[in-house]
């Protein structure tokens, strides 16, 4: 009996180590993806950390259920703020992304907009960001 219990204990320990290694590789992939998305959108990834927030089952394109992981991280727009960001990954593929959207306008453009009357709208215009690295 002790041989069987030792074998089961060894199998459980091996499964835990394997799961931990797989989640570590997935987290590193999420850090790379968060860094790439922040660079693409002109944001600064703060603390270079990404943490697992949730795991859920989601139907894929072919109808199969797959595990989707949600990772949270913090970004800065101008180096003086902290805004939350999230990304969802299925396997090594980015399935969804949530970044803060704050409109930054040049001073002249802001003056020109206030001079012209515009109808009220709930649409926030997006403007391309410059790739200024803040440290």
Describe the structure.
There is one protein chain. With 135 residues, the chain is of the alpha+beta class. The chain has one domain. The protein is built from two helices and five strands. It has helices spanning 2-40, 107-115, and strands at residues 44-45, 51-59, 65-76, 83-90, 93-98. Strands 1, 2, 3, 4 and 5 form a five-stranded antiparallel β-sheet that branches. A hairpin with a 2-residue loop joins β4 (83-90) and β5. The longest helix is centred in the first third of the chain and has 39 residues, at 2-40. The chain starts with a helix and ends in a 20-residue tail after the last helix.
Per DSSP E runs of 2 or more residues, the count of β-strands stands at 5
Largest sheet: 5 strands, antiparallel
The low-confidence parts are 104-108
Order of helices and strands: HEEEEEH
Strand content: 25-35%
By oligomeric state, this entry counts as single chain
Number of helical segments with 4 or more residues: 2
Spatial separation of the terminal alpha carbons: 61 Å
Rounded mean pLDDT is: 80
Radius of gyration: 22 Å
InterPro entries: DUF3301 (IPR021732)
Protein name: DUF3301 domain-containing protein
Pfam families: DUF3301
